[in-house]
Write a structure and sequence with these properties.
- It is a single chain.
- The chain has five helices and five strands.
- The strands form two sheets. Strands 4-3-5 form a three-stranded mixed beta sheet, with no helix packed on it.
- By secondary structure, the protein is an alpha+beta fold.
- It folds into two domains: 3-81, Arc Repressor Mutant, subunit A (Orthogonal Bundle), CATH 1.10.10.10; 88-133, Dna Ligase, domain 1 (2-Layer Sandwich), CATH 3.30.1490.
- It has helices spanning 3-13, 19-31, 36-46, 52-65, 104-117, and strands at residues 69-72, 78-81, 88-92, 98-101, 130-133.
- It is 46% helix and 15% strand.
- Pfam families: FUR.
- InterPro entries: FUR, WH-like_DNA-bd_sf, WH_DNA-bd_sf.
Length: 138
């Protein structure tokens, strides 16, 4: 994704495009499901004076604006995802690696199941699934 595309994305989500924010987003794109610490390390290789607070605040801003999604794993560690299309996550307990998994049939199965249950007072808005195991060569 080029810088002008990142700026357009930010504008569409109401996020101000600053050099630090652009660098954080570029780091997110290059790392695939990174932790905040990994993002900080990558950004500091480009902008050595960026602060921890700037990176954490930027990640929070992005998540609240819908630019990225947070991915909380079973080991209670937060990762971030720039892929906003409908997908699920395969999480490796051994390596802590996260990979995207696409399955429209699973999506429809879950939605239909929940709708048929008619849970009082509950309206399904989204489905987040994390499959936990060990990833070999997916």
């Amino acid at each position: 994704m080029r810088v002008n595309e990142i700026i357009e994305l930010f504008q569409s989500k109401g996020v101000k495009a600053t050099p630090q924010r652009i660098s954080v987003y570029e780091a997110l794109l290059s790392l695939k499901h990174p932790s905040a610490e990994a993002v900080l390390e990558r950004v500091r290789s480009i902008l050595p004076t960026v602060t921890v607070a700037t990176v954490y605040n930027t990640l929070d801003c992005f998540a609240k604006a819908g630019v990225i999604e947070r991915v909380l794993t079973v080991d209670n560690k937060m990762y971030f995802d720039t892929n906003l299309s409908r997908h699920y996550h395969l999480y490796s307990e051994e390596t802590h690696e996260i990979q995207d998994f696409y399955d429209n049939e699973l999506s429809e199965l879950i939605r239909t199941f929940i709708q048929n249950r008619k849970i009082p007072g509950f309206e399904l808005k989204d489905v987040k699934v994390q499959l936990i195991g060990n990833i070999e060569n997916y």
